[in-house]
Amino acid sequence: MSAVWRASRAAVARRRLQTFVIGLVVLCSTTTVLLGLGLLRAASAPFDRAFDQQRGAHAVAAFDPDRASRAQLARTAGRPGVEAAAGPFGRTVLELPHDWLWMSAGSLAVVGRAGPDGPVDRIRLLEGRWATAPGEIVVDWPVNGTPGPDRLGTRLRVRGAPPLTVVGFATSMSKSAGAWVTPEQMTRLRPTGTQMLYRFTGAATDAEVRAGLTRATAALPTASLTSTQSHLTLKRAFSAQADAYLPFLTLFGVLGLLVSVLIVGNVVSGAVVSGQRHIGVLKSLGFTPNQVVAVYLTMVSVPALVGCALGTLIGNAAARPVLKVAFSGIETGSAAVGIGWWPSAVCLVGMPALVVVTALVPARRAHRLSAARAITAGSAPRAGRGLRVQRRLGGTRLPRALTLGLGQPFARPARSLLTAAAVALGVATVTLTTGLTSTMIAYGEVGKGDGAARVRVPAVPSAPDRQTEQRLRSLPGADRVTVRALTTVSLAGYPQTVFANFHRGDTRDLAAGIVKGHWPTRAGEAAAGPAFLHQHGLSVGDRVTVRLNGGQAPVTIVGELMEGNAQALDSDWRTLTRLDPRARATEYTVRLAPGADARSYLEAVGAADPSLEPTVLDPHATATTTVVGLASVFTVLLTVVAALGVFNTVLLTVRERRRDLGMLKSIGMTPRQVVVMTVSSAAAPGAVGGLLGIPLGIVAHRLVVDHVGVISFPESMKQVWHPPQLAALLLAGGAIAVLGALVPARSAARLTVAEVLHHE
Hints:
Elements: H1 2-14, H2 16-42, H3 45-53, E1 59-63, H4 70-75, E2 82-96, E3 106-112, E4 124-128, E5 136-140, E6 155-156, E7 164-171, E8 179-181, H5 183-188, E9 193-200, H6 206-216, E10 225-230, H7 231-238, H8 240-274, H9 276-284, H10 289-326, H11 342-368, H12 371-377, H13 387-394, H14 400-407, H15 413-444, E11 454-458, H16 465-474, E12 478-491, E13 497-505, H17 508-511, E14 514-517, E15 525-528, H18 530-535, E16 543-548, E17 551-561, E18 568-572, H19 573-579, E19 587-592, H20 598-608, E20 615-616, H21 622-656, H22 658-666, H23 671-706, H24 715-718, H25 723-749, H26 753-759
Parallel strand pairs: 3-8, 5-7, 13-18, 15-17
Antiparallel strand pairs: 1-9, 1-10, 2-3, 2-9, 4-7, 5-8, 6-7, 11-19, 11-20, 12-13, 12-16, 12-19, 14-17, 15-18, 16-17
């Protein structure tokens, strides 16, 4: 084996360019694949890890205390299929008439628990301590909130009950409540429901959760179960934002894997084929066929291992900002979002294995060659391949250099097909990115109309609501004013409270985001995004009962928004008036007239009412920037990999045709004609790849935009293709091919007849 290693090391050192190409291709391919696998893993692992650490509840169930006693509920812990249970706990919904801490006035679901620990739903205390006496409350830490220890001691004013003092902040992966008090305090608050928390022996699907809950409550009185919440719903809510990126990142990962397989296979097999003369020399020196195979496997594996290791490091470094964006504002409990170990392990093991398997096929062919045949095959022209095509092209009026180049792919059909397939996937990636960019730009422009600036003005509790609205509307430069009241409400039949936005004024910009139905324009109407509708099992036309501050009103879902918070719905201001006539606005959005100066308007607002603090809204959509940025990264990676594949193919062709090039130069072919011939030999499969890649990219674009769970794109944002754009994309295949072929073409042009004869 020492002789094998010395021969392999010498081949690696001698073929520096080939070694560099193999390593670079594997590096880019590994980085691309790792990014796709990493986000797939990160989308679910943080929730699962934190959920298991905190013994989260597979089902949070609320019961009517008048129908099911606490003793009856306690006995459900021993029912078949129940792994563990906690409760019964008293539960009620408090109404807070004023803004508190970081939240708007509204409803707050509170549960009475003696401590944070237990067999199910171990609540993680983040600041302060647990409530131990009447008048104390522990509040759930919000996703984006930063309450900190300085907010401990805040007194919450509750309608119809004494104030409660905040003594701690905590988080529950089960989202079983918005706050917790002692059981004694819950008794004083007069609970309206009883809560049980269950973990089942099987809860991997919605059907299993429902079956477990049915078995647990089978002995209870009829209609005693009032609402349930599955941990799978929380998991979907957790990954809702990441799911917006997963479809196209997964697709880019698959494209990257396919391009990697094709290019690595082309590069490695070409390296072995082009080294057949070296194989003959090794065999003539006494190397056995198995030793020759080992030499070539080692020769290609060394740069592949280096490229795979570097690609894994780069992929892990690039994944951190990707995951930070994808999971921004998402509750991760006590677990950190990370790429994990198995995507890196898959790349570290899988990519070198791919290289070895790909190299094994041509290496086994070299195993069967005799020494004499291998030495002869290394430089002998391959008669009979593509000659018919060459003759037909020679009979045309095209320049001779061009016909020689266009006929060359037919001499190596398998290699040309691999090159065309790699270029097709590269063009498909460019097409997909172009379509996504157009779709996301159109999405980011929704509601912006002619691009006029928008100003947000938070409401001041001391200022009259209607008077502030009229003042903002009357200032120079104002065009439209939209008033919003943000509050938390409870929905009948659902244990969690949700956010509700109530609007009045000019809502045309908001109505532009409707993709199904219409914008709520009357009392009792609401609209919500696809994530909210999916998680609550609702659709346009369904009706829910909204409760706020002791009032309740039936609300019909009349419209589906293009996007929306998974825990928020939008309604008309008249619905809020029915629920709470005393409710006030929380903010005003002013759209300025075209050409109006935003800074002048801010100064006018400050002069009219110094207590108001207006700010100009950022015109750039974060989702648009993220998707376009990530798509561009993947496009650059895959384009570089495809161009490297073309580069390798042309380089091998130049090396194999050194004798032909010498003969052509000896009869008068100029360096410029050599470049034309060499580049055109790559442009032909590049053009074919472009023709195949465009429809592939269009189909991929439609698959992505149709399966983004948190955004429902209208048809107008999906139909983004136009003839000039398609024509430019058609040229992308040729551009990738020319980009990869240009360097070896110039190298071929510099060859002299003397160099070729010396090599022979």
